[in-house]
Amino acid sequence: MPAVSKRAEASVQGAASRQGFARRSAAGFMASGLGVALFSSAVFGLSGSFAKSLLETGWTPGAAVTARLTGAAIILAIPAIPALRGRWSQLKNNWLTILLFGLIGVAACQLFYFNAVERLSVGVALLLEYLAPVIIVLWLWAASRRRPRTLTIAGTLLSLGGLVLVLDLTGAVKIDFVGVLWGIAAAVCLAIYFFITAKENDTLPPIVLASGGLMVGAAVMWLAAATGLLPMAFSTTDTKLGPWITPWWVSLGGLIVLATVLAYVSGIVAARALGSKVASFVSLTEVLFAVIWAWLLLGELPGPVQLLGGVLIVGGVVLVRVDELRGAGIPAVPVRAPLDHANDVEPVP
Asked: Does a structural domain hold residue 250?
């Protein structure tokens, strides 16, 4: 019996030790910033699924974007105001950055993406938006007439080849080309945003830029609706998320709280822990999470050819960003600056 008791005691101590190690490993993983970055990508990836569940009940893209921006702006203002205490002059000094971020990086980028989601699967719409780095490379190449290095060219060609597969031009299911144009428009907005924020500016806290941009975006959307330029239609019909039928406010709340507020805050924390360059690489997992969420919540899954195209697009973007890390590309234009900028806040897809 004593021997058995000792073995039992040793077993319990071993189990406790393993549990303690697992907890320490998990805590270390999150503390490193990598876990937070993956969490940010996961909740960002929910936006398309939540938005589409609303669009399918009669919401217009404009209404979904307006509700999302308004709710998130109000919530993020809570931590943003204390961050500006005694430094309100920062708003005056950075008003143009906040304005352009709100107009292009928030309002236009989201509106175009939601319009794409209305006509395409969530995964395809997001993959089209992720062509932004390729658009930047092609624009800089044309504007400067200086050829990028081999790795950047390879990444660009790989992504363009992936785009052809994503569109699946010879497939049995014909893709909606109006939706494709909306997706590409979102990518163009994202590329423009990167150019706008290329100049380093460390005076504005990221949470203030995020909150201010959301406020500007919400104001623009409400103004466009009031003038009749933007169709606005809301619905209180129940939404469908996976096997569950939920009230409309569940999808809207998820869109605001999870896919915007938590996504923004965790993204900022991850960028500070990992550095914006590494965090930008981890953010590529958003495509994977978006496809998984759309599959689980909407029953959407791109076909095998489109999935292969998605792999090529993401692979091409990785190559372009690896070249950025190596200081390659076109040195005459600061294409790497958006990834170096400490206060950059990614536009919310």
From this structure: yes
Q: Which of 120, 116, 96, 102 is nearest to 66 (CA)?
A: 102
Q: 74 lies in a domain?
A: yes
pTM of the predicted model as reported, rounded to 2 decimal places: 0.79
Q: Rounded distance, CA 152 to CA 190, Å?
A: 19
Helix residue ranges, H only, the chain? 2-31, 34-44, 47-55, 61-83, 89-93, 95-100, 109-119, 122-129, 132-144, 150-167, 177-196, 206-226, 248-253, 263-274, 276-282, 285-298, 304-325, 337-340
Count of domains forming the chain: 1
The string of DSSP letters for 301-316 reads: ---HHHHHHHHHHHHH
For 248-274, what is each residue's pLDDT tens digit?
999 999 999 999 999 888 888 887 777
| Three-class DSSP category at 348 | coil
Nearest to 270 by CA among 49, 97, 42: 42
Q: Identify the domain containing residue 202 by its residue range.
A: 59-340
